[in-house]
Amino acid sequence: MADTIGGGINEDGSLQNTLVIDEKYAESIDIVGLENAGVTELAINSPVKDVEIGLKGDVDTAVAGARLAFAEIVNEAPAGETASVTIAVTKAKKLDFTTTGEGATDLSVPEGRMMKPTITTAEGDAEDSISFGIASTVKSADISTGGGNDTIVFDGRMKGRSIISTGDGADVIEVNRRSGKGKLRITDFSSDDTLIVDGVTITTDNLEDAPKWIKFGGDPR
Ligand SMILES: [Ca+2]
Predict the structure, then answer these.
(1) Is there a domain that residue 82 lies in?
(2) Is residue 182 part of a domain?
(3) 10-residue block means of pLDDT along the chain (221 residues)?
(4) How many Å lie between the centroid of ligand 1 and the Cα of residue 162?
(5) Is residue 186 part of a domain?
(6) How many A from CA of 67 to the centre of ligand 1?
(7) Number of C-beta neighbours around residue 35 at 10 A
(8) Interval between CA 166 and ligand 1 midpoint (Å)
(9) Number of compact structural domains in the chain
């Protein structure tokens, strides 16, 4: 059995962000509406598997606390809206973020370990922002941001091999690898895109200036 919990009700009666969790985990998550800040905070008190969060794009969501495994976050926001979510848990294993509609994504991971996440934002022209902060560790991420001018920032520790595809648009990828020996592959880096590594701007005109641990083009494996 699973419980469906609304993050709240809008003035027009529509349901805000929804949370679906197996009822055996119901006591593991506190849902705190931070009214003044306009944020729904999910406080994870003990490790939770298989939580599903549906983002409608109307209320920002913050997930904080203990470990998450196989969490599914679905951006259901309509075109023109942005689903904003901050994930600051100790460790998130195999997070699956997908966008079903045309809404934009603003995903921030300021801290904690993000292990093998798959993040897929809108295929269309939504302008997405994905950032991993200085207190975060990202290992072997698979990120695809589709059309639109997207921004992806890595400021923390990097491990494993991450693969990103930024699609059409003028995309900006900023990498300030704080520690770790993680590798990065950008599958579709084009003349519209900009890569900034430790303050050095790299375009298709000076790919040779990129560090060796950043590769371009399709995955040869
Ligand atoms: Ca793009």
Answers:
(1) yes
(2) no
(3) 60 72 75 68 84 85 90 92 94 96 96 98 97 98 98 98 98 96 97 97 97 91 64
(4) 17
(5) no
(6) 31
(7) 9
(8) 4
(9) 1
